[in-house]
Design goal:
about 270 residues, mainly alpha, 14 helices
Length: about 270
């Protein structure tokens, strides 16, 4: 950071020296410099606050947001981050107000819209959450657009719109180039629609990713999804293999209890 500031400082001093010699005043340049410095400071405060929220340190996050809002009380980024802080504190009314203020200040602030959509989803307002995610998904320059479509897919699922959920999950998978969570979600929603062969194809891609990467592992949901696909396709070996993993790795999981109930009902 220090290395970046020195050239700016040198340039500012040079300009000031020239202005004094010429007997003129460069108020416009200094105003723009101050504005740029203020924006940088706000961005830094917001980034720190967001990181502290992620770490669960709400007090530190709130401190940085207060500093950002002191510099600009109508800054959309700061107001959206304030919503995160309020949400972390369980202050839902204040969180909703902050998110709305952020979008009123800048309706094109996609990250704030994503925060608001996730907040609405957590409150069970799936219709409103869908509207926010749909609007956010139109921003083709957003750097994590795949996650927006994934969230939209989850929202459509909660609303019972499996076809729309499938479309959203496919888009998330295409943008992310086969991200594991998108593959699993797409496999699951295809299974729920009775598209067993297609579900099996995407599930096989998920398994290949897990086998190739030591950082990835099956979850109870992924194992139970694979078991259901295998049962529909009467692939007994695949079912037995996944069921053994589910029993050994996640014996207390809800998915294993569901599998045991499924087996018991058939006996």
């Amino acid at each position: 950071m220090a290395n970046e500031r020195f050239p700016t400082l040198t340039k500012a001093l040079t300009l000031l020296f020239i202005a004094v010699l010429a007997g003129c005043v460069t108020t416009t340049d200094s105003r723009f410099a101050r504005e740029a410095d203020r924006e940088e400071a706000i961005n830094n405060y917001v980034q720190l606050a967001t990181a502290y929220v992620g770490q669960g340190n709400v007090d530190r996050a709130r401190h940085h947001i207060e500093r950002a809002l002191e510099l600009d009380g109508d800054n959309a980024r700061a107001l959206a981050a304030q919503g995160l802080v309020y949400q972390a504190q369980g202050e839902d009314r204040l969180a909703g107000e902050s998110y709305r203020k952020a979008l009123d200040a800048d309706s094109e602030y996609t990250r704030g819209r994503v925060y608001f959509g996730a907040f609405l989803f957590s409150k069970g307002d799936f219709e409103a959450a869908r509207r926010e995610f749909q609007r956010a998904s139109q921003d083709t320059d957003y750097n994590d657009r795949a996650s927006i479509f994934f969230n939209l897919g989850m929202t459509e699922e909660r609303l019972g719109n499996l076809t729309s959920a499938e479309v959203a999950y496919r888009r998330a998978m295409e943008i992310s180039r086969g991200e594991p969570l998108s593959l699993l979600a797409l496999s699951r929603v295809l299974l729920e629609q009775g598209k067993h062969s297609e579900a099996s194809r995407y599930y096989s891609q998920l398994q290949q990713l897990i086998q190739r990467s030591p950082r990835l592992a099956h979850s109870p949901e992924s194992l139970y999804t694979g078991i259901q696909i295998a049962r529909h396709l009467q692939d007994r070996n695949q079912e037995a293999s996944l069921a053994l993993l589910l029993r050994n790795e996640y014996p207390e999981s809800e998915e294993y209890q569901q599998y045991k109930a499924l087996i018991a009902n058939e006996q």
